[in-house]
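Lab notebook, design round three. We kept the backbone fixed and only want residue identities now. Task for the bench partner: fill in a sequence for the structure below.
Input structure tokens:
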């Protein structure tokens, strides 16, 4: 265990990517493109294994073709307590409608904290990895011990060109130290 008195946490910036091992690279690529809206991006040519890189929402997903797809575990039960990635959305009703249209099985949950509600939908990708879609931005981010919100921010999904800067309003207890994007 790291001793927090010896220099603190690693100097990290943000989440870069998540990697998933796939039974079928083509099936998983189709899912992440057409269900979750990710865009395929160029992979380094020096990689000597089958895979695909995708990007959207400020994060990357790296799909890796399994060398032995039959040995991969098969998950059928949708369990919100299992490992998963979560995506914020603006309309839970539209997401639920789309999942129904696509015939993707899902379960719903609702979390309540101090009169604030978060709705969640959980489902699997083609390889059994859990995906959560939520309106989690409803909850303020409050560090343990202080009780004061660090960020209360409604994120907006904007496609920004490299040279553009867009100001996104953000309510915070320390606005000069918070950037919402």
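Proposed sequence:
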């Amino acid at each position: 265990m790291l001793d927090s008195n010896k220099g603190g946490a690693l100097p990290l910036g943000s989440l870069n990517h998540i990697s998933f091992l796939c039974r079928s690279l083509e099936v998983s690529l189709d899912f992440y493109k057409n269900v979750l809206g990710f865009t395929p991006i160029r992979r380094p040519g020096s990689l000597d294994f089958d895979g695909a890189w995708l990007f959207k929402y400020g994060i990357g997903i790296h799909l890796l073709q399994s060398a032995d797809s039959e040995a991969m575990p098969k998950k059928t039960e949708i369990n919100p307590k299992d490992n998963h990635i979560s995506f914020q959305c603006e309309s839970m009703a539209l997401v639920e409608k789309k999942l129904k249209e696509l015939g993707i099985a899902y379960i719903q949950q609702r979390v309540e904290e101090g009169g604030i509600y978060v709705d969640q939908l959980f489902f699997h990708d083609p390889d059994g990895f859990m995906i959560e879609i939520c309106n989690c931005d409803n909850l303020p981010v409050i560090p343990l011990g202080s009780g004061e919100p660090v960020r209360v921010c409604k994120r907006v999904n904007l496609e920004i060109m490299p040279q553009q800067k867009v100001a996104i309003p953000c309510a915070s207890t320390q606005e000069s130290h918070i950037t919402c994007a």
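Keep this in mind before ordering anything: Residues 92-102 form the longest helix (11 residues).
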